[in-house]
């Protein structure tokens, strides 16, 4: 009888310890680390905002708001991510006969902070920018001035992030 009571007490104590450990493990929050991808797209040559899709450590649709001094803020429904990016370097060409503008540049970025669900986010990475546009034509001649009559801009960026 004593043996079965002792066994029951040991079993109950073990269950309590294990369930307590399970609760502690379930409530412990560890940082999520991995590669985050950002894809931005716009068809406006004069706007400072672009649609964005983030995927990787987190997935969210949002809007990229370009700021001054090579800064940007990605606005998502549950918070923001701020960053600073380098000026792009690469190739540009304008065909004076067809009015086609092609831009292919690349650069780096560093995440500088976040709010809401992205508070404390850190990371950096590389980006590639591609623009394909058709410049205006005046009197049958292509012009480098004036808003393009068609414009597509795509930016793909990725790099490691840590989200606490």
What does this structure look like?
The relative contact order is 0.19. The chain has one helix at 2-27, and strands spanning 32-42, 49-55, 60-66, 71-76, 79-85, 89-94, 100-114, 122-134, 137-138, 141-142, 150-163. With 164 residues, the protein is of the alpha+beta class. It is built from 1 helix and 11 strands; from the N terminus they run αβββββββββββ. The protein is elongated, with a radius of gyration of 26 Å. The longest helix is centred in the first third of the chain and has 26 residues, at 2-27. It has 2 domains: 1-30; 32-163, no CATH class.
Which short descriptors sum up this protein?
single chain; 164 residues; 2 domains; 11 strands; 16% helix; disordered N terminus
Summarize the structure.
This protein is of the alpha+beta class. The protein has one helix at residues 2-27; strands spanning 32-42, 49-55, 60-66, 71-76, 79-85, 89-94, 100-114, 122-134, 137-138, 141-142, 150-163. Strand 7 and strand 8 form a beta hairpin.
